[in-house]
Amino acid sequence: MTNQLALLAAVFVFPGGLFALLFGLALKGADRRVAARLQGRVGPPLAQPFFDLVKLGFKRTMVPATSAGQTLFLGAPLVGVVAMLVAAALVPIAGVYAPQPILGNLLVLLYLLMVPGVVLMVAGSASGSPYGSIGFSREMALMLAYEGPLVLVVAAVALRTGWGMGGTVTFSLSEIVEYQRTHGAFLLDPVMWPAVAAFVFFYPANLGIVPFDIPEAETEVLEGPLLEYSGPALGLFKVMSALKAVVVLGLGLALFFPVAPNGIFGLVFWLVEMLVLMILGVTVVRVSVGRMRIDQAFAFFLKWPLLFAAASLAVVAVVG
Amino acid sequence: MLSIATLEPMALAWTGAIFLLFGEVAALLSLPRLTRVIVASTIAEVGYVLMGLGLGGAAGETGAYMHLFFQVVMRGLVVAAGWWLIRRTGSSNLDDLAGSGRRMPVASTLFAFGMFSVMGLSPFKGSYSKFLILYAATEQGHWAMAAVGTIATIVAAAYYLQVVQRVYLEHPSRRVDLAEGPALAMPIAWVLTGLTIVISLWPEPVLWISEVLSGHLHSAKVPEFEGPWSILVLVPYVGGFAVWAIGQVSLRARDAAAVVLAVATVAMIAFAGDLEPATRLFALLFALVSAVMIIYSIDYMARAEWSNRYYFFAFLMTGSLIGVVTSHELGNFYVFWELMTWTSYFLIVHDQNQKAIRAGFVYFLMCAGGAYVMHLGILLVHAQIGSFEFAELSAHAASLPPAIGFAIATCLLVGFAVKTGLVPGHAWLPIAHPVAPSSISGPLSGLLTKAGVFGMIKVLFVVFGLGALDRFAVLGIGFDTILVVLGCLTLLYGEIRALYETELKRMLAFSTLAQVGEITAILGLGTVLAVDASLLHVTNHAVMKTLLFYAAGAFILRTGHKKIAELAGLGRVMPFTAGCYALASLAIMGLPPFSGFVSKFLMIWAAAQAGHWEVAAVLLIGGVIGVVYYTRVISTLFYQPYEGEVVVREAPTSMLVAIGLLAAAIVFGGLLPGFQLDLVARVGDVVAARSGLAQVTLPSFVMAWPASATIALVGSAIVWLVGRSSVVWAGRLAVLTLVLAFFGVVFQWGRYDLLSGSFALLIAGVGVLNMIHATAYLAHSHAQGRFYAAFGVMIAGLLGMTAAKDVFTFFGFWELMSSWALWGAIAHEETPVARREAFKYFLFNTVGASFMFLGLTLVVALAGTFDLAGIGKVLPTLGALPTGIAVGLVFLGLVMKAAQLPIRIDWQMHPAAAPTPVSGYISAVLLKSGPWGVLKLFVLFGGATLFARFGQYADQSVMMDVIAVIAALTILYAGAMAVVQNGIKLVLIYSTVCQLGYVLLAVSLATPLGVAGGLMHFVNHMFLKDTLFLAAGAVMVSTHAEMLDELGGLGRRMPWTFAMFLIAGLSLAGVPPMAGFSSKWIIFEAAFQSGHWALGASAMIGSLFTLAAVLKFAHAAFMGTPTAKALQAEEAPLAMLIPMGVLTVASFVVGVFPGLLLVPISAIQAQLGFTPIAATLAGGLPGLEGWHPGLLSVFVVLIGAVLLPYLRLGHRAGVVRTQIHQCGVGDLLPETTRVGAVNLFETPNAAIRGLLTRKPARLGDGKSA
User: What pairs with residue B952 in β-bridges?
Assistant: First the structure.
């Protein structure tokens, strides 16, 4: 029974569910605030994402006359949020939380991470707007470019762990975390540096921030898929984006730097790590570089990240 | 001093020989002056007499005197009749005499009769004086002289025949005013005619006088060239005269008499008890086909000229054929051989037009020439052994010196080979067939060429024996090699020429070359099994080719068209004839369930058994070429619109009866070949006994039809018939048939292992759904019954295949499933694209099946059993290399079926042109036979322990590794190709290839987890891809679109179709926690855990391509800006939605409860001998890190329910409909703003195209990456 309760808790309260929601929105708030400061603005209050959510809840739902179907159009963001909430329950927090195997392993998480992209594409396309279609087109191109390197990176981590533990491979996130806690973080392991390098390029693309915010580029395609959204549905998209930040950053930590003390200090440590990652890895990047064109981004991913990812797998395979 | 008295006898003989040769040449050069020809020819005959006298001896001198007598009488007849003709015409020039047959029929007939008598040919065969003289030469060892005589005879034949043809057969080239003829000429001619008949039938008095004159009476050294004729011969022979006589009175009575006579001939042979096996086989075949020929002729010749003459020669030909096979000795054999040529010559030239006469000339000259060479061989034999009797020859064959034996066998073989039509003696065949009446073309191919085969078997194999033939080998080249080489050359030559032929009957004639080449090549293998195989094919080919010619004759009779291209759409107006033509074509291509399949199987097996896999390969290559040209005709007949006149009717009754009888024989021979096999095996036994080889017990070659397959096949036939009157009922019956077939599987559950049984249930179950969908899909199409039937037969093949327990049944059903029925279903739309694509796929399937064919027969040859389980027991004890090659070929066939790289993937995939329900079925179900076969055979053939012996690496057998790597490459390649497609179905088909890659990859990992994942994906893909196809089909029916860019925004008009498409698509793309992801997850895990991490990573990346392809489809068709076309679309009818719904629900249920699939899968694994995965009905996925998709689904639903109220907050005041933002421009057309399929993925498309296709990137595809 405790098992089931623990599962429910993991999905609904911590680290998925409520916790992920709040933490994600807080990270967003921090991001906006710091970005504003870096740009010489005052910026919104930290709780602005929460306010936005409430405000959007009071707006009326609008559906384009040309949409492919109201249920699909409105349901899409809901699916995205749900997927990310479940995904959040799959991300381990070193020393604090290890997901139960019955929920799924790294592979499940990896494919759940595709859902927000799918949802965005479907949403853009279902709106019937040409901007949505362009956003769809760009999102798919980007996914095709970055998912390949990501798969190779994940494989490298899984193999390194599996072989390190004397087995074949392991996609269990808890084992990956445990292995690094006893053998040292992969971030500090030269063998894994190519993998880290490839992963570094992946997460801005997945999170849709500059220089890879091409699908939703406001100044080009007016936020693309989101253009026709308003009200609660738009709010759900914002939640989805916030949750995705938690999942992706958390995944990065689990894969390469699950170093933390046990217990409550571990959680604090993790929260700080996430915040630092958000600011350094997201905020600073997005205010300091410009946007790439989609063909540039596509070519870029098939060059460097793919090279690094392939190298990482090769190095792991050679070292064993 | 030189005087006759002191002349050396041999000098005299040589003088004669020179006279003979130069005389004949001079006569030939004297054309067209008839008088001079006859004078020169007479001088030449003097040469014969001199030769006889000079050679001396009983034979020589008696022959000389006899020749003198014969020539006086017969030449007298020629001179008298010729005198009359010349005087009346007023010229001795053949150009003027040409056409005398019309002007002076009686005198011309007598003249022709005289000419043939002089040559030594007529129905009253009697003139053997020449033989005596030539015999004297060989007897005394003067072979050169005999050879000169033979050459002279061939030269003579050339001008005799020209003279006869021009005078008797040709049309008059100009009008000639006839003068009075000499009064004496005709009476003399009549008297001499009578004399000729008498001395031919009863030459004894002449012989006696000659023996007296030469002083050799009672010396008994004169050989008897002929024995008494068998009663079996006399019946058609004498009957032929009777029929001719009746025909002078009443044509109807003649027809009746002809049929009675033909049937009587058959009955006589059928009940003749003491026939030697080869004789019985060939005599029965000849008599039966001849009887059909007579039946066909009744209506075919009803309005023809000279029909009495036709029947006369037809019966004489039958009699001669039977005579050849019933002979006990070479004398009669030769006589009948000559008569066979002579009688068939008259049938070939029956129409008496310029072409026919030319063809007849070539035919006669070649066959007669060959026969003369053969005759030389016969005389040589007699000179060596002193007898013509087969029994005697057989007893003394061992004593023949090798060099002489070689000469004899070569001479005989020349005669046989020319008759059989072996390259280079084939020239007559393609010329003679088209010009002969079609009633004759059939037997010409079917029977006359087989007389040559009979000669090879009877004289070379049975009389001399294989051992003697081996001894005759010169320079290590035996007759077996010669036959194989000649056969293969003829086979390839015939197939290639047929391929480029545009005229139907010529194409069939070249195909005959190919077929006799096949028969000869197999015969040349010289094993008992090979003899059985080639003989079985002799019988089958006789029937098949006769039918083909008869159907072609019906087409020509009704339309007057001879070119293949001109037969377009004839299947519509002559359904029975064209249907039977198609049936015979399928049979001759070697496709089940028809007779040709059995003999082809036997031949390939015989080649494999004999260790001559190269011969088998040549046969299979020939078969592939055959598929090309035979399919082309069927396609023209049935899958092209009819554009001819409306008045064309079905062929007349008697022709239909004949064609129907032959068709029935083909079906019977395919389903129950026992009768033929029994006849054939007895000949094999004789050959075995003669040559001291072990007898061979042939398997029954009856395909084991399970109830389900029988129901599907019979039901399909009924559906086809019903479809001609009621489309709706045909559809209902088709569905009902498959429902019954489903229960057929259930009731015979014990027949199957769990894997195959489960597959069979899915085959029938999904078949029912797709058939329901098809009834709606084709509601406004054409020829629905034909389509339902083809679909049903395809399913019958699948059902039979799953139940197969032996190699023959397995391969038979495999072919049934993947050949003609499939082709027919795909080509249904009758557009040029559909025809081309269907043909391409058919051809590719044939190639794939050929590899498997070769592999399977090699396996059988190695294991010595047909039983699949038995093979599994034996294989591990056999040598690794041959076993590896054989099994590798089988697996190559299976992998090609699943359309895996590395051949041409655009050829391997099933084409998009097929009606969508069948496309879906092929994708979802039929192609699964590849992975199913890999798994089943892997286990049956001994699993990893066997495969390990082919080379081992990292605990995996190399063969399975190769398949796995191919599958992984295919996943990436086909996945990427799916992304760049813009055709509605091409997207889905490429994706199918990609998904089959997953199944095959997993299965070939051969680990418990891998097999489980493969089987699970096997089922998931079946549900999901079928849903996608059925949805696409609904879209196509609703919009009549073919390309994605014609669509857009359909989602609002077809919400259910769209919903099911999107769910199935995303599931297939691997979005957790749906069914498609679960099975892929197992596959990823299995690949990584078995050490194949590179393959696992490829598989993971591949699923992204599927996502892109599915979303592209969804966007272009259902979402995006709506097009005008889309706005007129309507939601699919229930008959489409229900099957889609059932599939969607099924995939949803197994998505939530994967145990429903995994529990049976683990049972299957246990039965197959793998360690079963742990699975419970309500449980999650297996493996070390097993999770539960159902649990995840529950959470998804729960969280969704929690969040839904927030989403619905905005609904309080109702949902607002807005116009999309277009920067304030209101009048932009959707066509201008929409992002269509072509432009959707510009950047990745350019990269993929640049990488994978050689086509330059489309304009507007943007900069390449």
Answer: B957
